[in-house]
Request: fold
Amino acid sequence: MAEGSRNIIATGAKACTHEVALPQGYNYIPLKDTPLPKQMAKEYPFTLDPFQREAIRCIERSESVLVSAHTSAGKTVVAEYAIALSLREGQRVIYTSPIKALSNQKYRELAEEFGDVGLMTGDTTINPTASCLVMTTEILRSMLYRGSEIMREVGWLSLMRFTTCVTRSAVPSFSYLTTSTTSSSPPPFPTPFNLRSGSPCHVVYTNYRPTPLQHYLYPQGGDGLHLVVDETGAFREDSFMKAMMSLSEGGAANKQRSKHQKGKSPMRSMVRMIMKRGYQPCIVFSFSKRDCETYAMQCSLEDFTTSEEKQQIEMIFKNAIDILSEDDKQLPQVSQVLPLLLKGIGIHHGGLLPLIKEVIEILFGEGLLKVLFATETFAMGLNMPARTVVFTNARKYDGTEHRWLTSGEYIQMSGRAGRRGLDDRGIVILMMDEKVEPTFAKQMLQGQADQLNSAFHLTYNMVLNLLRVEEVNPEYMLQRSFRQFQNSQAIPGLEAKIAERQRQHDEIVIEDEAKVEEYYNIRKQLESFGEELRTLITEPQTIVPFLQPGRVVEVRDGEQNFGWGIVVDFKERAVKSKRNGKNQAEEKQIVVTTLLHVASDAGNKKPRPISTPTDKGEYKVTPVLLPVLSQISKVRLFLPKDLSGADKRRAAFNALQEAIRRFPEGLPLLDPIEDMKISTDYARGLVGKIQTLETRLFAHALHESEKRDDMMALFVTKVRLRELVSSLKKDLKQSHSIQQLDELKNMKRVLRRLQFTTNDDVIELKGRVACEVSTGDELLLTELMFNGIFNELSMAHSVALLSIFILGTANSKEKEKEKSPVEKDLTNTLNQVQENARRIARVSIDTKLDVDMQSYAEQFPVEMLEVVHDWAQGRKFSEICEKTDMFEGSIIRAMRRLEELLKQMIAAAKAIGNTELENKFAEGVTAIRRDIVFAPSLYL
Reply:
């Protein structure tokens, strides 16, 4: 266990928190006793903030430190100091970033500052012997696996974002500097680092934002901006309610009118207002590549630049594209973007050509672009703030569903507003087209950053590389992973919860508890048999004849009871079922349109039952799936055909309330045997069991007791506490165990069965091959190599085949398209790929790993086969773009990943001594590495 201390440094807005984790028994000198040196490694022309001074003190003591602060707060100052100190002391320093584009940008900045700087990414290597090396985390991981000599010379490792690193004990220890955006609380990160290095590790944390933000709502179709969070962080509820009122009263009508007004759009009006108020430069975040382009075109009639700025934009653009061939200069993205740029309008998303993206970044950084329409990736990587940030929507599609932004996502993007030293405040504008509750808005606008949880997961490449490294094994790595650390941190809290819940359980004393428990069990059995009977009753062939308009039914969706409602109509609809989170075959379901009394909840489109007196109710016609009908009564009411008016819906529901009053013992239900004619032995048996249990229940001594409800409520509380204690004990047992250890054991069994390792976990030849492959499926690619799949293929077909390993999961719609010539040529090979994949899946399933054989075998998309084949044969980029509907930037990104995989396949072929295959893959690298696809970065 680690010891530690916590201190609040300074006072006021700029205050920071300092924490330190110490190895047990470490002779620690308090940080406050270490003044800043008189001769600092780097001097700054401004006064350092408290968090910067504290972090630099840690660096001067060669002790690891994590700096957590808001975007643009000045974390880079600390990283630069670590670099300057290492260079002064004659040590090497590594600066890592999570993505290549950011590595390129940082290389340019640091090279201008320090000179002796090198770059190592999957695409580029510049000056690898430099004292300061900028690299991606993937390159760092590879170096650590191989015990690179560079790591023995490193004094400082600067991680731009928090990352769990695996280090060999044979590598001399070095200090870590990690920078992170502000999390919800001072993050408990130091322990994994200091336990590994045997020295202190510090956290320096601040909530201080140098440039305060003002948050506005812009209701689409409404009446302008509403300040809802001021620069002090106060939420203005009156202004928020005015915005919601504007949205509800005038928004829909105004929005409908705007559709018929040519040349006008909410976005164009928004941008014009921003320019008029002098809020530029502005970043407009949208969650769709297509929308970014659409919004930019809507604003293309505007012009925000001077003639001098136009000259600068044209000069920078033409200098940038001079490296392209004449043919590539005619690509639509290249030829059509300049008119927009000249007007001060830019677009930035992953589908753009990398060269165009970098031109736009440079122009925006120079202040020549006044408005930039970007996807959220712009906020995740590049450090380019603006005065104003606009959100086009408060919802995003995350690959599974359209959902509200989390407060962490909002913080990350809105944090780009406000340039330190240039703006007295940053402006954030959230465009909204639907109402939300104030509590929800507060959570999104003022909530905390998302908690940082380890996303660490095991891969076969990782396991194999660790098995071949001396003195380290995968179990050792799991024990020291950040995920294991986070899990272990929960132990004291779990133990305290168990003790508290057990105390609460033991304090509950119930008179004649045995009889109460007996009564409780009878009711539980009744509920269980009732649920089985309900399932029979709601079978479509049984219930459909009784779903006439006006039929009164009870709706219960899990724990949510909506009470009685009135059937309006029903229809059969095809719905895609889901398996493992993926859409599968369609199945038909009955959808019942029902008039219900539900809570008014603008922040949630899904109806919610009225559960508290404060809930505002409305009568709403709501579609529900058949299985949520919990009871069906004999009562039918008259129902008007038109329920569009609120008065008619209220009148219908008043009739229902009157019917309920007429039956004080409860509405009469359809009898499953007599009325619904369910005549199976199973149904009759269920009805008989229910009748027997009801007789026992009514005859029980507790049934007529005045204390029954109170005693039952007390017993239910005790049962829930007992169940909670049992669940917490399971969590505690899990926390004490090593995370993912069972998965690791199963993965090792797979490796033995496939002969990648021996029974003693010694790497075999197959394993040495798989150690080289990390970009694609290492097991499957190794099997294909050993089965000779690539031996008979041409270079172009081999490269094309590898393309199926570098895209995401296959889209089932692709299978409906006519096969391309290249796909037909590779039909037999693709069948062999699937056969090998099924074999790996069968072995995985046999060893208790959670693998779906069909999904695994069909996960390899073929849409780039022809594109890659033609590119490898020398076709022009403009020609291959015509054969796919992918964005040009997406094609290039895939091609660059393909080059990484080809290089790994060269190393894999070398590992088995197959020179012919090695040469074939090397020829593939030469064939695809050309023209605009591999145009050099403008930052280099």
